[in-house]
């Protein structure tokens, strides 16, 4: 009887303990620790972890690992968050340790945190530069290498190629499959539009409504697939530039239903859209009203404006970008909507990036119509308000606009090719014009071939210019096969599927056989220039000297101490004989040349005949 009693008592206590444990573990439910892991040997010894879980702030985190000091525990407005300030000292070695979440001496939740060793040369990595040509691609629209990930149960939007703004199924495997194609074309870097999870009900293909900053969208692949893509690209001499967005997150982001604090986002009484006027920041007459809307208005109902003046969010974003550089081995970042975020935060962020990776590059989307406005955002510019952005690279939007007009207009005093000449003349405002990313089009506007009324001669002229001017050229995917698209017909029209990227496509433009005669002519022309440019240091780093266009013919030279390349662009409708005495200062010491496009030797430089609407690129010889 007695024994039986004891057994019952023990059983009762055991059941009670189980219950208490269950109710506590139910009460404290750890869901996320971000960044999910980190590295030893970083320049900045500080690491701030975001911890998310039901009532987690009621527990006390504890860490016992040599070289890791838990310096501070920060509680947010929301009891479901904790922020842990750690110091990773020089003594720390790579390994795993437990972060225990304790209440009343009992461990209720544990996260196994890992500190990894950095890869050799991680700090010294070189970014992209003017020796590169960047290929911009929208991953959903380039190539579908894995049809099994087109539809994922947990992901709200399913694939449907019949919808121009729907998901089409392109993915990382598709890009991997086409690396040889890109290397063969002469591409040395790829800017891939955002690949983070975008678990939004519609329009999720473009990637600009991020719902998880630490996760590749499963419809593109896994985090590991992304790392492998970077590694495979590097083996083929191709750099990877990751597209990031700090200004906004998707309205379906996991934190939207349970924000750490109300000021995590810029909140308005009723939905307020940004004015999209990026020039407000530099406008000396700008109103507070316009400034507030630019910086704090939402990009869209589906894109919530993040408040980077919240230091915890600022840290979160900064560490997220460093995590991806280190984890994936990135060569560069393209930062979206640069002037829409708080500029002091952006300057601090860039400083942190360069502290960790001194030779890294970030190109900011500085979508502004004039050079002075763009220059404001580039590092080392002497701005009247003293602002130092620390941003290494900016996009040359003024040149994009000029290129769209220069080759279709009839040349006159202020029309035609002179527009390009005029834009270059404003380069004095840039601290480093050679760090401008130059482009004829991108994923947000009319395709270039459409802008120039599908004229192949104009296309060739423009590409000859793009690949011989100063700066870092960017080519939008499909340019090489003359893809067309009108922005006013919807973004789906300028982001069409690359033909041949999907099984069952009727044509495969990745192969010469699958391209039309005209497409092959464009492809071969571009390839010839790209391969030549790739190994031509004068184009990468040489000086530029140009001459006022005459009769629609624009002549310039790229040169260094010993070598020179002469470029002639005849934008007019008639063949012209160019007397070269006007260029004597650049031709001095040279008496012959080799035409890069024609392949022909030139023995007399005194008069150069150039047919209508053509480019000549001449490597000068002595
Ligand atoms: Ca797919």
Written account of the structure:
The chain is α/β, with parallel strands linked by helices. It folds into 3 domains: 2-117, Sandwich (Immunoglobulin-like), CATH 2.60.40; 132-247 and 313-539, TIM Barrel (Alpha-Beta Barrel), CATH 3.20.20; 542-621, Sandwich (Immunoglobulin-like). Helix content is 26%, strand content 24%. A hairpin with a 4-residue loop joins β22 (553-559) and β23. The radius of gyration is 28 Å and the shape is elongated. It starts with a helix and ends with a strand. 45% of the residues are buried.
Lay out the secondary structure.
Blueprint: H1 2-27, E1 29-34, E2 37-39, E3 46-54, E4 60-63, E5 68-75, E6 81-88, E7 95-103, E8 106-116, E9 134-137, H2 172-177, H3 179-185, E10 189-192, E11 196-197, E12 212-216, H4 223-235, E13 239-244, E14 248-250, H5 288-296, E15 303-305, H6 311-328, E16 332-335, H7 343-356, E17 362-364, H8 371-375, E18 393-395, H9 397-406, H10 418-425, E19 436-439, H11 448-451, H12 456-466, E20 472-476, H13 491-494, H14 517-534, H15 537-541, E21 543-550, E22 553-559, E23 564-570, E24 576-579, H16 584-587, E25 592-595, E26 601-602, E27 607-610, E28 614-621
Helix pairs in contact: 6-7, 9-10, 12-14
The structure holds calcium ion.
Uncertain stretches of 5 or more adjacent residues: none
Q: What is the CA–CA distance across the termini?
A: 113 Å
Tell me what the CATH architecture of the largest domain is: Alpha-Beta Barrel
Strand content: 15-25%
Work out the oligomeric state of the chains in this entry: single chain
Class inferred from helices and paired strands: alpha/beta
- Put simply, the count of helices is 16
Rg from C-alpha positions? 28 Å
The CATH superfamily of the largest domain is Glycosidases
Give the overall average pLDDT.
96
Largest sheet, spatial ordering of strands: 9-10-13-16-17-18-19-20
Assign the CATH class of the largest domain. Answer: Alpha Beta
Largest sheet geometry: 8 strands, parallel, barrel
């Amino acid at each position: 009887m007695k024994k039986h009693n004891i057994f019952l008592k023990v059983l009762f206590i055991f059941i009670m303990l189980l219950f208490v444990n269950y109710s506590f573990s139910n009460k404290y439910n750890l869901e996320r620790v971000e960044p999910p892991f980190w590295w030893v040997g970083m320049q900045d010894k500080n690491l701030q972890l975001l911890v998310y879980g039901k009532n987690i702030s009621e527990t006390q985190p504890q860490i016992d690992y040599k070289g890791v000091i838990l310096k501070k525990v920060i509680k947010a407005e929301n009891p479901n968050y904790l922020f842990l300030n750690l110091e990773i000292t020089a003594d720390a070695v790579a390994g795993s340790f437990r972060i225990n979440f304790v209440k009343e001496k009992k461990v209720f939740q544990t996260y196994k945190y890992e500190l990894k060793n950095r890869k050799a040369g991680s700090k010294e990595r070189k970014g992209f530069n003017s020796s590169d040509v960047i290929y911009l691609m929208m991953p959903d629209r380039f190539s579908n290498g894995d049809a099994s990930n087109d539809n994922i149960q947990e992901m709200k939007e399913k694939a449907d190629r019949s919808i121009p703004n729907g998901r089409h199924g392109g993915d990382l495997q598709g890009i991997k499959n086409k690396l040889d194609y890109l290397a063969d074309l002469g591409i040395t870097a790829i800017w891939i539009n955002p690949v983070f999870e975008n678990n939004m009900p519609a329009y999720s293909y473009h990637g600009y409504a991020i719902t998880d900053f630490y996760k590749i969208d499963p419809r593109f692949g896994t985090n590991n697939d992304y790392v492998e893509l970077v590694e495979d690209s590097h083996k083929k001499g191709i750099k990877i530039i990751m597209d990031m967005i700090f200004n906004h997150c998707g309205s379906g982001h996991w934190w939207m239903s349970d924000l750490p604090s109300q000021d995590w986002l810029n909140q308005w009484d009723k939905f307020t859209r940004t004015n999209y006027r990026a020039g407000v920041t530099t406008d000396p007459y700008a109103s507070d009203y316009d400034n507030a809307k630019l910086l704090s208005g939402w990009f869209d109902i589906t894109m919530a404006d993040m408040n980077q003046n919240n230091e915890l969010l600022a840290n979160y974003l900064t560490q997220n970008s460093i995590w991806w550089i280190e984890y994936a081995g990135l060569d560069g970042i393209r930062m979206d909507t640069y002037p829409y975020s708080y500029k002091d935060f952006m300057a601090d962020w860039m400083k942190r990036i360069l502290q960790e990776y001194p030779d890294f590059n970030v190109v900011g989307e500085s979508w502004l119509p004039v050079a002075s406005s763009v220059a404001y955002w580039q590092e080392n510019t002497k701005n009247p308000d003293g602002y130092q952005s620390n941003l290494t690279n900016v996009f040359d939007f003024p040149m994009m606009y000029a290129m769209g007009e220069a080759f279709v207009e009839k040349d006159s005093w202020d029309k035609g090719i002179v527009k390009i000449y005029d834009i270059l003349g404003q380069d004095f405002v840039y601290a480093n014009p050679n760090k401008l990313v130059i482009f004829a089009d991108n994923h947000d506007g009319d395709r270039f071939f459409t802008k120039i009324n599908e004229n192949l001669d104009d296309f060739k002229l423009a590409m000859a210019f793009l690949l011989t001017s100063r700066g870092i050229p960017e080519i939008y995917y499909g340019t090489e096969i003359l893809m067309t698209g009108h922005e006013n017909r919807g973004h789906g029209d300028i982001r069409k599927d690359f033909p041949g990227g999907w099984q069952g496509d009727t044509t495969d433009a990745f192969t010469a056989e699958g391209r039309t005669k005209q497409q092959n002519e464009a492809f071969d022309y571009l390839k010839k220039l790209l391969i030549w440019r790739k190994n031509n240091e004068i184009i990468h780093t040489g000086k530029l000297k140009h001459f006022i266009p005459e009769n629609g013919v624009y002549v310039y030279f790229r040169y260094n101490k010993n070598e020179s390349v002469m470029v002639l662009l005849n934008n007019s409708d008639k063949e012209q004989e160019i007397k070269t005495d006007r260029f004597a200062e650049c031709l001095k010491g040279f008496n012959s040349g080799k035409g890069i496009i024609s392949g022909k030797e030139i023995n007399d430089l005194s008069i150069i005949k150039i047919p209508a609407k053509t480019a000549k690129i001449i490597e000068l010889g002595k």
